[in-house]
């Protein structure tokens, strides 16, 4: 069954929802792992948005629109954007909050992820979250960050179904999470058919992985317009 996740909102649409965008995360990994973990540049913020977007009070900015803004403003698509830059992007996108962050490893199987939430109106960091642990627990670490940010933003509690789907996502294997990140990386690079194929393969291996279900549905919908 396909379960809708983060709702995507064009910047020109206004309602009472909290509009959140997420920039690519900076890859601070040193050494051989740098290239192999680069898909997390796109994958980590995508998964954080999906988790926050489970709340009915949240709308997230379309990733394609974010990419267009980064390109038009000649900003680094690899996550090297400061608070002022994040605020500038957020104003263009019509968002109240912009998430930016970094990730790194210790070279011995551990990963550290840090996320900052920038208030677009003040260009100041209002919330932050970090998670550190084994790379094998990547999905759970991303979930920890998402849940902390949601609490700090005072988002309402999820429904029972929302909590169930969130728990399943956070239990995903490292390979499943990284495979999803690779598909998002391909999508963001404009290799849409490759991304579709990758998501289909992922779902053949992990049919209950909801982020891939929802993203594949969204991509098919976009291509049908």
Set out the fold topology.
Elements: E1 8-9, E2 18-22, E3 26-27, H1 33-36, H2 40-52, E4 58-61, H3 63-72, H4 83-93, E5 97-105, E6 110-119, E7 124-134, H5 138-152, H6 160-170, H7 174-188, H8 192-205, H9 210-223
Parallel strand pairs: 1-4, 2-4, 2-5, 3-5
Antiparallel strand pairs: 5-6, 6-7
Helix pairs in contact: 2-5, 2-7, 7-8, 8-9
Could you give a quick summary of the protein structure above?
The chain is of the alpha/beta class. The protein has helices spanning 33-36, 40-52, 63-72, 83-93, 138-152, 160-170, 174-188, 192-205, 210-223; strands spanning 8-9, 18-22, 26-27, 58-61, 97-105, 110-119, 124-134.
What can you see in these coordinates?
The chain is an alpha/beta fold and 225 residues long. The chain has a domain at 8-158: 3-Layer(aba) Sandwich (Rossmann fold). It has helices at residues 33-36, 40-52, 63-72, 83-93, 138-152, 160-170, 174-188, 192-205, 210-223; strands spanning 8-9, 18-22, 26-27, 58-61, 97-105, 110-119, 124-134. Strands 1, 2, 3, 4, 5, 6 and 7 form a seven-stranded mixed sheet that branches. Strand 6 (110-119) and strand 7 (124-134) form a beta hairpin. The longest helix has 15 residues, at 138-152. The model is unreliable at 1-7 and 9-14 (pLDDT under 50).
